[in-house]
Amino acid sequence: MTWFQQQGWKPHAFQKETWTAFLQGKHGLLNAPTGSGKTYALWFPIVLNYIKNHPEYKTKHKKGLKAVWITPLRALSQEIKQSAERIVADLELPMTVGIRTGDTSTKERARQRTTMPDLLITTPESLQLLLASKAYDRTFKDCSAIVVDEWHELLGTKRGIQMELALSRLKTVCKDLRIWGISATIGNLPQARQVLLGPISPEMANSVLVRANLKKKIKVNSIIPKQMETFPWRGHLGLHLLDDVIPIIKKSKTTLLFTNTRSQCEIWFQKILERYPEFAGEMAMHHGSVNKETRIWVEQAIRNESLKAVVCTSSLDLGVDFAPVETVIQIGGPKGVARFLQRAGRSGHRPGETSVIYFLPTHAIELIEASALQVAVRENAVEDRLPFLNSYDVLIQYLTTLAVSDGFYPNEIFPEIKQTFCYQGLTEEEWQWLLNFLVMGSQSLKSYDEYKKVEVEADGKFKVNNKGIAMRHRFQIGTIVGDANLSVHYQKGGYIGSIEEYFVSKLNPGDVFVFAGRNLEFIRIRSMKVQVRNSTKRTNKVPAWAGGRLSFSSEMSKLLRLELYKAATEANLSKELVALQHIFEKQREESSVPKPSEFLIETFKTRDGYHHIFYPFEGRAVHEAMSSLLSYRIGLLSPITCSLAFNDYGFEMLSDKPIDIQAVIDNNLFTSEYMLPDLQKSLNSNEMARRKFRDIAVISGMVFTGYPEKGIKMKHLQSSSQLLFDVFRDYEPENLLFKQAFTETFEHQLEEGRLRMALERIATQEIVWKQCQKATPFSFPLITDRLREKLSNEKLADRIKRMTKILMK
Questions:
Q1: Phi and psi of 654, rounded to 5°?
Q2: Degrees (nearest 5) of the Cα angle 749, 753, 756?
Q3: pTM score
Q4: How far is CA 357 from CA 135, 218, 220, 346, in A?
Q5: Which among 161, 595, 660, 731 is placed 20 to 30 Å from 25, CA to CA?
Q6: How far apart are alpha carbons 287 and 72 in whole angstroms?
């Protein structure tokens, strides 16, 4: 308490509640917003607990690990370290604080091998690496606390499962361990606590959920364009509002501009500097592919207020604590409520301050999203994060990790694994299959030695004795499998960052592209490095990263539909909806704006063919599945070829002859009956599962991604995992990893559960079919998106201008 008074702060009720629970030996989950002082809520009791148990700590301090703090983002580790060091220094404790992530130097790692810091900050991957080192039980035996920060970010991902497994082991290894998670607000907090502690574990029974009921005040200002196209399209990425953004940047100390993709980030950075060269030196860019030195420099510069603006992606999403950011601008719809609130919380980061976030639409219809987000902020509506079940690939990786370090006895490890949320339903039979897989490499591969990794010793211990296997396994620990990344260097060797192989494969020598805010000319690829030189040529090539296309969360879709329904009734409209009135009027003139009880279908003909457009407003992922399901069912009525397009609002079927919509309605083709078998037939579900299987094969270690620096080309990875996929399909369809690929395709990628709910909702609605003369404002973004794939940017803009002219007549 005295420490807080010295800082001129007053501890919050939730901080005191957490301290008390921790010191009573309880486990728990703390729900607190970014910037509320959650870091101090847990560093304090960890340190106080140490003092309480070691009264002679000043003279008899024993070195070694006392607590581990897990953070999902490397960018946060510096911040957390500073908070811990501040407490240690002010209380004059002989404790050391260290970091261990992918960015830690070899020298520092070697030093940690001889003596671990007292307080260690690390990532889920680096924690697994520690479990893969010899005598890890000695390293962890005096560890009294593990804190998992930003738990909501890990929940519902394979990194979250890595954490569940690591905790299941450390509960046994550490004598007196307390496990705590810190999470922002999500819809299913009680379940989040179960996943962290294990649903039926003694830890769960002795735990608390602490909620910091701090109402963070958030103000959302939409930047409404002075004139708006009646026919919106997703083309110019909001750049026509550039001049509205500059005054906002100028009047605040530091502004963060969040974009949804790295390529958008690059474009905005370029364009602002082109138009306002005076920002050079005062503006920077931050995304995951920019090199580490630049990232750390930018984070430091934000802290000491030497930058006016930073254009960034989710690489700065999570709380970089107490950095004095005044304003946040969100470019384009953030697609999820939680993500938006997280970004808003980046401004006014001190407790009690109001967060201001500006919303800049990249096309007119995104203003409906802005209006929906206003409601979300008022009603504090947030999504659930659903945890995974039975991810066998992560379990195989974990068992191999234990076999690489000291080896394991199955009858000791199985009960630990059964206590986790992810594997609570694992059967004895599946467990035996997994053990066989480690030793023999599955039924159909047992004649190949390279899949036999683990040996069973005379006393029944499972152990990896081959040094090469152990080394390769350590290189590949982790569950994030992206496209292969290549590093970008100047010819003389300066490192700039990394881009995906997929993008580089399309470049020819001499091509110029924009990266890390510079125009670079591609020279060649040499040993996994892309060599470039600076160029003065202008270009519109920007690397696109695979994470580029986010889909609406279910919460966001629901809010969006409610806003649209308001537009249909024209009552209590927000200023965003008022600004869109001319679009709604044109939409009513040509078609209709659907009410809650209606499901809208539009059909019209253009020179491209017959357009059939459906509006479930359920988000891209659901529309992708629904469009292939429907086209499969229509094909059963009468054979037809059509191409599909989808966005967050609806989907389109374009064909060379009209589809009989009346027959679609009469035959009840939107039924949720037989959904799964129809979906499996409709989609190229084999192809999608094949893509998922590539990741599963890498995570489970069947495919080796190569040593750092050397790497293996994505093509080879792709081909070796495809070979395995085909072998299992033909000879071993019961293979658990093969089956997992299909489960993940349907449950995660196609959101089968949400698809079913959407179909059930449509079943209760009245179907309104409008036969239009020409394209409508709602359909315009879909049609123009399809053109984008065929035309260059300049041609696209011209074509859209011509189309709009015709439609406005």
A1: -110, 125
A2: 115
A3: 0.79
A4: 49, 8, 5, 9
A5: 161
A6: 15
